[in-house]
Amino acid sequence: MPLPLARTTTRRTPNLLAWATLIVGGLVGGAHALPSAESDCCHAHDAIGCEDPTCSATVCAYDPACCDRGWDYVCADSARHLCGAVCDDGCSATCDGDFDNSNTIDARDLTILLSEWQQLGRCSDLDGDGKTGPEDIGYLIAMWGNC
Question: Crossing angle for the helix pair 53-62 and 16-29, nearest 10 degrees?
Protein backbone atom coordinates (compact mmCIF):
# COMPACT_ATOMS: atom_id res chain seq x y z
CA MET A 1 0.00 0.00 0.00
CA PRO A 2 1.51 3.38 -0.95
CA LEU A 3 2.33 5.96 1.67
CA PRO A 4 -0.40 8.53 2.23
CA LEU A 5 -0.16 11.77 0.32
CA ALA A 6 -0.50 15.05 2.15
CA ARG A 7 -3.78 16.72 1.32
CA THR A 8 -2.66 20.21 2.21
CA THR A 9 -0.16 22.51 0.62
CA THR A 10 1.54 23.25 3.94
CA ARG A 11 3.37 19.91 4.16
CA ARG A 12 7.07 19.64 3.51
CA THR A 13 9.08 17.05 1.70
CA PRO A 14 9.58 14.00 3.95
CA ASN A 15 13.03 13.46 5.40
CA LEU A 16 13.56 10.04 3.81
CA LEU A 17 17.18 9.62 4.96
CA ALA A 18 16.30 10.18 8.62
CA TRP A 19 13.29 7.91 8.28
CA ALA A 20 15.28 5.10 6.60
CA THR A 21 18.01 5.36 9.24
CA LEU A 22 15.42 5.11 12.01
CA ILE A 23 13.70 2.12 10.38
CA VAL A 24 16.98 0.24 9.91
CA GLY A 25 17.96 1.03 13.49
CA GLY A 26 14.58 -0.23 14.71
CA LEU A 27 14.92 -3.45 12.77
CA VAL A 28 18.38 -4.06 14.17
CA GLY A 29 17.19 -3.19 17.67
CA GLY A 30 14.49 -5.85 17.69
CA ALA A 31 10.72 -6.08 17.62
CA HIS A 32 8.34 -3.86 19.48
CA ALA A 33 4.61 -4.02 20.06
CA LEU A 34 2.45 -2.33 17.44
CA PRO A 35 0.12 0.52 18.42
CA SER A 36 -3.48 -0.60 18.83
CA ALA A 37 -6.68 0.89 17.42
CA GLU A 38 -7.17 2.71 20.73
CA SER A 39 -3.75 4.35 20.45
CA ASP A 40 -3.64 8.06 19.76
CA CYS A 41 -1.16 7.17 16.99
CA CYS A 42 -4.21 6.04 14.98
CA HIS A 43 -6.18 9.27 15.37
CA ALA A 44 -5.65 12.96 14.72
CA HIS A 45 -5.18 15.09 17.84
CA ASP A 46 -3.71 18.49 18.77
CA ALA A 47 -0.67 17.24 20.67
CA ILE A 48 2.66 16.63 18.97
CA GLY A 49 3.75 13.03 18.47
CA CYS A 50 1.80 10.06 19.76
CA GLU A 51 1.84 7.84 22.83
CA ASP A 52 3.95 5.09 21.24
CA PRO A 53 7.53 6.47 21.31
CA THR A 54 8.87 4.23 18.54
CA CYS A 55 5.95 4.88 16.19
CA SER A 56 6.07 8.59 16.98
CA ALA A 57 9.79 8.77 16.20
CA THR A 58 9.30 6.84 12.96
CA VAL A 59 6.47 9.04 11.71
CA CYS A 60 8.20 12.26 12.82
CA ALA A 61 11.41 11.26 11.06
CA TYR A 62 9.34 10.84 7.89
CA ASP A 63 7.19 13.96 8.43
CA PRO A 64 8.61 16.38 11.05
CA ALA A 65 5.36 18.39 11.16
CA CYS A 66 3.84 15.55 13.21
CA CYS A 67 6.16 16.48 16.07
CA ASP A 68 6.35 20.20 15.33
CA ARG A 69 2.74 21.26 14.68
CA GLY A 70 0.45 18.45 15.82
CA TRP A 71 -0.64 14.92 15.00
CA ASP A 72 -3.15 15.39 12.17
CA TYR A 73 -4.90 12.84 9.95
CA VAL A 74 -1.85 12.63 7.66
CA CYS A 75 0.28 11.62 10.67
CA ALA A 76 -2.31 9.03 11.72
CA ASP A 77 -2.34 7.61 8.17
CA SER A 78 1.46 7.55 8.20
CA ALA A 79 1.35 5.60 11.48
CA ARG A 80 -0.88 3.01 9.81
CA HIS A 81 1.62 2.57 6.98
CA LEU A 82 4.98 3.12 8.66
CA CYS A 83 4.37 1.53 12.06
CA GLY A 84 2.02 -1.26 11.10
CA ALA A 85 -0.47 0.32 13.49
CA VAL A 86 -3.63 -1.73 13.76
CA CYS A 87 -6.10 1.10 13.44
CA ASP A 88 -9.42 -0.58 12.80
CA ASP A 89 -11.75 2.29 12.12
CA GLY A 90 -14.50 0.01 10.80
CA CYS A 91 -14.04 1.33 7.27
CA SER A 92 -13.40 -1.60 4.98
CA ALA A 93 -13.03 0.32 1.73
CA THR A 94 -10.14 -0.58 -0.55
CA CYS A 95 -9.43 3.13 -1.02
CA ASP A 96 -10.49 6.33 0.75
CA GLY A 97 -13.87 7.48 -0.48
CA ASP A 98 -14.99 4.09 -1.81
CA PHE A 99 -17.67 3.67 0.85
CA ASP A 100 -19.59 0.97 -1.03
CA ASN A 101 -16.43 -1.09 -1.76
CA SER A 102 -17.04 -1.08 -5.53
CA ASN A 103 -13.44 -0.09 -6.40
CA THR A 104 -14.88 3.08 -7.95
CA ILE A 105 -15.61 6.41 -6.33
CA ASP A 106 -18.88 7.52 -7.85
CA ALA A 107 -22.38 8.88 -7.17
CA ARG A 108 -23.19 5.98 -4.80
CA ASP A 109 -20.27 7.02 -2.59
CA LEU A 110 -21.41 10.65 -2.71
CA THR A 111 -24.88 9.51 -1.59
CA ILE A 112 -23.34 7.65 1.37
CA LEU A 113 -21.24 10.70 2.29
CA LEU A 114 -24.31 12.95 2.21
CA SER A 115 -26.29 10.48 4.35
CA GLU A 116 -23.59 10.88 7.04
CA TRP A 117 -23.56 14.68 6.87
CA GLN A 118 -22.33 16.37 10.08
CA GLN A 119 -22.05 13.04 11.89
CA LEU A 120 -18.96 12.43 14.02
CA GLY A 121 -16.37 9.70 13.56
CA ARG A 122 -17.69 8.29 10.30
CA CYS A 123 -15.78 6.71 7.40
CA SER A 124 -16.92 9.63 5.24
CA ASP A 125 -14.76 12.03 7.30
CA LEU A 126 -12.08 12.17 4.60
CA ASP A 127 -10.32 15.28 5.87
CA GLY A 128 -9.95 13.92 9.41
CA ASP A 129 -11.56 16.87 11.19
CA GLY A 130 -13.89 14.61 13.17
CA LYS A 131 -17.13 15.05 11.22
CA THR A 132 -18.47 14.72 7.69
CA GLY A 133 -18.78 18.14 6.08
CA PRO A 134 -18.15 20.31 3.01
CA GLU A 135 -14.41 19.68 2.84
CA ASP A 136 -15.06 15.94 2.60
CA ILE A 137 -17.08 16.50 -0.59
CA GLY A 138 -14.08 18.27 -2.09
CA TYR A 139 -11.81 15.34 -1.24
CA LEU A 140 -14.33 12.86 -2.66
CA ILE A 141 -14.64 14.77 -5.93
CA ALA A 142 -10.85 14.99 -6.21
CA MET A 143 -10.62 11.18 -5.87
CA TRP A 144 -13.52 10.50 -8.30
CA GLY A 145 -13.08 7.46 -10.56
CA ASN A 146 -11.40 4.09 -10.22
CA CYS A 147 -9.43 3.24 -7.10
Answer: 150
